[in-house]
Write a structure and sequence with these properties.
The complex is a heterotrimer.
Chain A lengths: L4 E8 L6 E6 L2 E6 L13 E5 L2 E5 L2 H13 L2 H10 L12
Chain B lengths: L9 H14 L6 E7 H9 L10 E8 L7 H11 L4 E5 L13 H6 L3 E4 L3 H10 L4 E6 L6 H14 L4 E5 L4 H10 L7 E4 L3 H5 L5 H7 L3 E3 L4 H16 L5 E3 L11 H10 E3 L2 E4 L3 E4 L3 E3 L8 H4 L15 H5 L31 H8 L16
Parallel strand pairs in B: 1-2, 1-7, 3-4, 3-5, 5-6, 7-8, 8-9
Antiparallel strand pairs in B: 10-13, 11-12
Chain C lengths: L7 H15 L11 E5 L2 E10 L5 E2 L2 E2 H15 L2 E13 L4 H18 L2 E10 L7 E11 L15 E4 L5 H9 L5 E2 L10 H11 L3 E5 L5 H13 L2 E5 L7 H10 L13 E4 L1 H12 L8 E7 L6 E4 L5 E3 L13
Parallel strand pairs in C: 5-6, 11-14
Antiparallel strand pairs in C: 1-2, 2-7, 3-4, 5-7, 8-12, 8-13, 10-12, 11-13, 14-15
The chains are: A alpha+beta, B alpha/beta, C alpha+beta.
Chain lengths: 96, 377, 330
């Protein structure tokens, strides 16, 4: 139910509109595009493959956004710690 | 590998793990269920439990289609395969699952024509290439896989390929989640929602979990960063006292699902009034059967099916492990009578079954040696 | 079929059935090859059988596998193969050109490996048996100087050395069967590894504790056997384990563990830490040894098991293979 892998469409199959060739790290397999008829991908697109069928197109935009969010994890907290280090809250010595 | 490697970045994983440690309230014990067997497998494969704080407990859910398949259904499928002209085609996951008289592989050793296929399309291809044989595809899987079976049946029908049929065991995920939540011994805080099922059904089908049960749900990808980010999102909701459905796996899961896939399923399948789930009993409206328009490709209509019912041995506690009430090691048979080599229950055969995953990847780890990792090579 | 796949079932068959009934009283762990003392001279001897479908595949064929496999079994036992005998079991109807091609392939492999074929036998069985051809070999060899292979000499702190990228052979065969409709530029890694073993023996001989070639069942199965024989733990660093892109891609696609995939041209060696760097450098300077790498070390825990660790602190047990590696969709 769950094993699905991102692959790049490298070729369409000439006589069969619903078939294409997808490549995953140099391994090529015929993949059926029948589930993506409402938004047909083209060579160069990345799709998620499960049991020889393309399930969705992979959104590069969303992937980049996610990576950005992940790289920001903990940074808000670091910024807060820096500010706390200035000692402004408890009326202490403050920055000298 | 693009869209894979970046989500396995060790520095970012450490960062995400640190954030989880920071967010997890030390006074609280969190019980988070990952529904999907693929998530269970990923958690063990990537050793994610090692980077989580000890007060986050991951409970393995029932989203393993092999595990919930009653043994009687395997017996029925293999009964059809006994016919000399039948080729039994199934995914590799099914090959070592025990039926009453042996697994598909064991039947193969005794002369049944059993073939592993990666895709239902490959099973149809075998039918094209073997016109004097009948290919029966033993279909399993949740909504991730059902659309592909549906499309294959549509293609078989439009091409007039008559020597092909499907023995349909597709099940749906929401009833399984409902059964978990209805279970009296269950106490869960949140869900890591199915990843690939959601590419088909979208995120709406989980809204009742947040709204009616008050539990946060985050649909998650399968790479380490996906799972860790999902846990971060769940913890944030729990800290804020919120309960909503969020989509962590945005790069692949559309909120509204895949309309073409849902359409294909609706064309070929209808819901069975009820279906037996191993370990969970009979659940209504939880499984798919092939519509009458496709009766000619329904193995259950083309062949006499014994309708075997097999009850699990009382000692096997698959049901409780499936519901997350027991940990695999707490089942009396775990590691002794029941191991991946001689499984008593299906949770031990499927590599994403809780018991097999725990046995294969974890149970001989001593807590002590995790600290010695840094000195390797 | 599970009994032939090289993993737990195979081991149980050998240890549980064969050993008690057939093998002479011995406390030594079972190895790929054995030593026989004939009139004061120690001779290494090994036997192996070769069953592969298809017979010919990118990078080689059954004949080459037979020659290289025999040489390699002797090499990792610390011996240089000198001569071999072979039996062929041929399926009725096997086309003569196919047989001839295998004989030619074997002749070429024998020459490359520097071993002489000194005898053999042939049988023919009915159509439908033998998958075309089965080959069995027995090889004898001369023990290498200064090399003693014994799992019981392995100590915590010893390094695990791997000669090169894993998975080429098993994935090539899987793809060559054509059942999964996958294509990749991959070839079997079948080769005679004796030259590399001789370099290793020359540079680090006294420091070599144990060697084996990770064939059926892969690196995980072979190291699990070691872990049980030496009663210690093997801890591997996942990012150090080399594999080609295509092997990785096929494994991810099919849900296979690369550590369970067969190799036909690699070896694992356990080397005392003070010899490890010199051993690695010597291999790097040798043709065919450029990709050698240290993938882990022996530790006291987890005893009798193999642990694979990641840079971020996650770990998992890598168990012995049960049956053949099967593609999965879940």
């Amino acid at each position: 139910m769950c094993l699905a892998i991102p692959g790049k469409i490298v070729d369409l199959v000439p006589e069969q509109a619903h078939l294409c060739t997808v490549e995953v790290a140099g391994v090529r397999r015929r993949v059926d595009l029948g589930l993506l008829q409402e938004d047909i991908p083209v060579p160069g697109d990345w799709v998620l493959i499960h049991v020889g069928f393309a399930m969705t197109k992979i959104s590069e935009q969303d992937a980049l956004e996610q990576m950005h969010l992940l790289s920001m994890l903990g940074e808000a907290e670091q910024a807060m710690q820096e500010i706390r280090g200035y000692g402004l809250e408890d009326g202490g010595a403050g920055v000298s | 590998m693009r869209y894979v490697d970046e989500f396995r970045d060790p520095e970012l994983i450490t960062k995400a793990a640190d954030e989880i440690h920071r967010l997890a309230d030390t006074g609280r014990h969190y019980r988070i269920m990952e529904v999907c067997g693929g998530h269970t497998h990923a958690i063990y494969r990537f050793g994610l439990k090692d980077v989580l704080p000890s007060n986050i407990e991951l409970i393995h859910g029932p989203g393993c289609p092999v595990c919930v398949l009653p043994m009687g259904r395997i017996d029925d499928g293999l009964a059809v395969a006994k016919n000399a002209e039948v080729i039994f085609a199934a995914f590799g996951d099914m090959m070592r699952v025990p039926g009453t008289h042996g697994s598909p592989f064991e039947h193969k050793a005794r002369g049944t024509d059993v073939r592993i296929v990666y895709s239902p399309a490959d099973a149809l291809q075998i039918a094209r290439k073997n016109p004097d044989k009948h290919v029966m595809f033993f279909a399993i899987g949740f909504e991730t896989t059902a659309p592909s079976t549906a499309l294959t049946l549509m293609r078989a029908r439009s091409e007039g390929i008559r020597n092909f049929s499907v023995f349909c065991n597709h099940v749906t995920i929401v009833p399984a989640i409902r059964a978990i939540l209805d279970s009296p011994d269950m106490r869960l805080d949140a869900f890591i929602g199915p990843g690939h099922v959601s590419t088909v059904i979208g995120c709406r089908p989980y809204e009742w979990i947040a709204r009616n049960e008050g539990k946060p749900v985050v649909t998650s990808g399968f790479e380490p960063l996906d799972l860790l980010q999902s846990i971060v999102m769940l913890l944030r909701q729990l800290r804020a006292g919120e309960a909503k459905v969020e989509n962590q796996y945005k790069r692949v899961v559309p909120w509204e699902g895949n309309r073409a896939a849902l359409k294909a399923m609706a064309e070929v399948f209808q819901l069975r009034p009820y279906f037996e789930w191993r370990g969970l009993g009979f659940i209504s409206q939880s499984a798919l059967k092939i519509r009458d328009e496709y009766a000619g490709w329904d193995a259950e209509q083309r062949f006499p099916i014994p309708g075997t019912r097999v009850t699990d041995p009382k000692a096997a506690q698959c049901g409780e492990v499936l519901k997350g009430v027991l940990k695999p090691a707490q089942c009396k048979l775990f590691g002794n009578e029941c191991t991946p080599e001689h499984p008593i229950g299906a949770l031990m055969v499927s590599s994403e079954g809780s018991c097999a995953a725990y046995y294969n990847y974890e149970h001989r780890k001593a807590a002590a040696m995790v600290t010695s990792i840094s000195s390797v090579a | 079929m599970a009994h032939g796949a090289g993993g737990k079932a195979s081991r149980r068959l050998v240890e549980g059935l064969f050993a008690p009934l057939l093998f002479a009283e011995s406390s030594e762990p079972l190895g790929d090859a054995a030593r026989v003392n004939i009139n004061g001279t120690s001779v290494a001897i090994t036997t192996d059988s070769f069953v592969v479908k298809p017979l010919k595949f990118p990078g080689g064929s059954i004949g080459e596998l037979a020659v290289n496999g025999t040489m390699n079994d002797l090499a990792v036992s610390g011996a240089r193969g000198e001569a071999m005998v072979v039996t062929f079991i041929l399926e009725e109807g096997l086309p003569l050109p196919v047989l001839e091609a295998e004989i030619r392939a074997m002749a070429a492999a024998l020459q490359r490996a520097g071993i002489a074929l000194i005898g053999g036998d042939t049988k023919v069985v009915e159509r439908g048996k033998a998958d075309g051809m089965y080959i069995t070999t027995t090889g004898i060899g001369r023990p290498l100087q200064h090399v003693t292979i014994d799992a019981r000499s392995v100590r915590a702190g010893d390094k695990i050395l791997l000669s090169g990228p894993i998975g080429d052979h098993g994935i090539t065969i899987l793809l060559a069967r054509g059942e999964l409709d996958l294509e990749a530029d991959l070839a079997s890694d079948t080769r005679c590894i004796l030259p590399l073993i001789e370099v290793l023996a020359g540079e680090a001989g006294p420091g070599i504790r144990w060697m084996r070639d990770p064939t059926r069942g892969g690196v995980a199965t072979t190291l699990n056997e070691l872990a049980r024989d030496c009663r210690l733990g093997i801890v591997l660093s996942e990012e150090e384990i080399p594999m080609r892109n295509e092997v990785r891609g096929a494994c991810e696609l099919l849900g296979l563990d690369p550590l369970h995939i067969a190799n036909e041209g690699q070896f694992l060696a356990v080397v005392a830490p003070e010899y490890a760097d010199a051993a690695l450098n010597a291999l790097h300077r040798t043709e065919g040894g450029e990709d050698a790498v240290i993938i882990g070390e022996v530790q006291t825990e987890p005893a009798c098991a193999v642990l694979v660790t990641t840079r971020y602190g996650g770990s998992r047990i890598a168990d012995m293979l049960v049956g053949d590696p099967l593609p999965r969709i879940c």
